[in-house]
Specification:
One of its GO terms (biological process) is signal transduction. With 389 residues, the chain is mostly helical. It has ten helices and two strands; from the N terminus they run αααααααααββα.
Length: 389
């Protein structure tokens, strides 16, 4: 399905297609991709769980293995919690295309294009940074095997991965390396696809909110009559514009509700996994003087996880602010000069300011920058608790 404005979302479409989440791709193709991802992730989970039975399980083992186990499980959770909402994702995209197709002025078109371009640029930046991090991690992980160099005399050729593959690691070294590279490269795709989807939808909401605010400021304007040498203040109200504003404001509310329905459970699972991962990575950072290499790698992972966490929180904050700005712009207009019947319609929008639009994770965690700070504090608290234990 092609639309003129879809050029801004080509990368989003690619990421969703290669993870089997694009609502317009063929059912056979989507199922095949999901099966491939599921098989790889289940094999990885099996290898990680097996290591619990073949290794000496202690606190150090858990601190090193769980941060890798959590995102592997989260990958499958992200996939299948969104598969059940494929019809709703299709509705969201159809709604976006309808918003692009509606009649707009040149200034309003510019607003829409600015927000769509922001989506495209942020998605590209996120993709590039993520795979720079992944490539660096692969090089760090397998440098001794690739270059034949070890940092310590007693260090084995294959660094400890805390996975059990049940084959000779020396004999099938390159097979293990190839499988590990595939999994490490494949795993971030799901998080990239889902994050870019959330980014595209929320940026579209912000664009529509700014467009409606622009129209709200121009519902009323002053008419000057210089023939009588007096300034006659009057109000010219286009009932069609008022009806459009109210209808589109209602559509924005429905659009945000649908976004939350599709993302509320995945966001909550993300938060739980992120708190666990950051806490364990912080535990590794605290031992940086004992194992400098592990400490630096943990710091890098923390930065990546925080980058992943801040996107939904920042966009949730922006959606709340932009939706509230519509009410403020209507309130600051000359709505009191309108007819009583028209005032009642406009008051419906102003009344929404008492109930701001907030994206949440299962109504438990509002997506906002203050909540981002709360998650950091929670992760640090759990880290301190585990350190005492």
């Amino acid at each position: 399905m092609e639309h003129p404005e879809e050029r801004y979302y080509k990368l989003n479409r690619f990421l969703l297609s290669v993870t089997g989440l694009w609502p317009y791709q063929s059912e056979w193709s989507a199922r095949f991709i999901r099966i491939v991802i599921t098989v790889f992730m289940l094999l990885c989970i099996f290898a990680q769980i097996s290591s619990f039975f073949t290794s000496d399980v202690n606190m150090d083992f858990l601190i090193e293995s769980l941060p890798m186990f959590v995102p592997t499980v989260g990958n499958l959770c992200q996939l299948y919690t969104r598969v059940v909402h494929m019809d709703k994702f299709k509705e969201l995209f159809e709604h976006m295309w309808n918003d692009w197709a509606m009649e707009k002025t040149d200034d309003e078109i510019k607003i829409m294009h600015q927000h769509a371009e922001t989506t495209r640029l942020l998605t590209i930046c996120f993709l590039v940074l993520m795979y720079m991090f992944i490539m660096g991690f692969i090089v760090w992980l397998f440098a001794p095997e690739i270059f034949g160099v070890t940092l310590h005399v007693n260090e084995s050729r294959l660094r400890t991965l805390h996975v059990e593959v049940y084959i000779d690691k020396e004999r099938y070294l390159y097979l293990i390396l190839s499988a590990a590279c595939i999994i490490v490269s494949l795993a971030p795709l799901m998080f990239l696809a889902t994050t870019s989807l959330y980014l595209a939808l929320t940026q579209h909401v912000c664009g529509i909110c700014e467009l409606l605010g622009y129209r709200a400021e121009r519902l009323f304007y002053v008419i000057e009559d210089t023939a009588e040498r007096d300034l006659i203040r009057g109000t010219k109200i286009n009932c069609k514009n008022i009806a459009f504003l109210i209808r589109q404001h209602y559509n924005v509310i429905q659009f945000i509700d649908t976004i939350e329905t599709c993302h509320t459970i995945p966001l909550l699972m993300d938060l739980v996994g992120i708190v666990i991962s950051i806490s364990l990575y912080l535990m590794q950072v605290l031992t940086i003087f004992e194992n400098t290499e592990r400490g630096y790698i943990s710091i890098t992972f923390i930065i990546a996880v925080l980058g992943y966490l801040i996107i939904p929180n920042y966009m949730g904050q922006k959606v709340t602010e932009m939706s509230s700005s519509i009410c403020e712009k209507v309130y600051n207009s000359a709505w009191y000069d309108a007819d009583v019947s028209e005032q009642k319609s406009i008051l419906l929008i102003m009344g929404r300011q008492l109930h701001p639009l907030v994206l949440t994770a299962c109504k438990f965690y509002p997506m906002s920058l203050p909540s981002f700070k709360m998650i950091l504090q929670m992760a640090i608290s759990y880290c301190m608790f585990m350190r005492k234990v």
